[in-house]
Amino acid sequence: MESSSSQAEFDYLFKLLLIGDSGVGKSSLLLSFTSDRFEDLNPTIGVDFKMKYVDVGGKKLKLAIWDTAGQERFRTLTSSYYRGAQGIIMVYDVTRRETFTNLSDVWAKEIDLYSTNQDCIKMLVGNKVDKEDERVVSKKEGIDFAREYGCLFLECSAKTQVNVEQSFNELVLKILETPSLLTEGSSGAKKNIFRQNPPPSDSSTSSCC
């Protein structure tokens, strides 16, 4: 995945969402992907947002990536950001069992409740594999969860940048292979990614591509 040299034009605009417990490294993953650097960051307050232009599969893409707070007190605030997302990255910490358990107890339920794109692509990411000696969640457990919930899956490290770019790359490639999501992300439609209301229902969009 290469950054596009022409940021004025793009074929598609994709809205991506990072979710998961506080402290799993969502903000660090986003920083690693967008800026190629690592920092130990404080927990996100509410929502953070970054843009990145990339070339993937011969297409110029503009990625609008929302980094949500993991703390429960911000949950009602972040629920609206699920609307219209073509891709959702669920992040857990391989050294903290509860962050993996909460994927099914909390985050998968939130996707079902708030996501407005039924074909939305989900990516499961196990972060902090650089701490292999502290690992408590096995790779097989991650694979099994991903199969059960229909997610793509990778383990990565925001600190060493292992598989960080590949995580976003695989997610975006899968979105590009899903026609129903491309109609939502077309640059020609000039979608407003900041709009909080779900798009009006249109019978013409329900026909099969």
Automatic annotation (TrEMBL):
First and last residue of the signal peptide: none
Region (Disordered): 189-209
Entry-linked SUPFAM superfamilies: P-loop containing nucleoside triphosphate hydrolases (SSF52540)
Family from the record: Belongs to the small GTPase superfamily. Rab family.
Membrane topology label: Lipid-anchor
Entry function: Intracellular vesicle trafficking and protein transport.
Keywords for the protein's UniProt record, in alphabetical order: Cell membrane, GTP-binding, Lipoprotein, Membrane, Nucleotide-binding, Prenylation, Protein transport, Transport
GO cellular component, one term: plasma membrane
Protein name: Ras-related protein RABC1
Keyword Transport: yes
Compartments, record wording: Cell membrane
Keyword Repressor: no
Species the sequence originates in: Nepenthes gracilis
Biological processes per GO annotation: protein transport
PANTHER family on file: RAS-RELATED PROTEIN RAB
GO molecular function, one term: GTPase activity
Alphabetized PROSITE patterns for the sequence: RAB, RAS, RHO
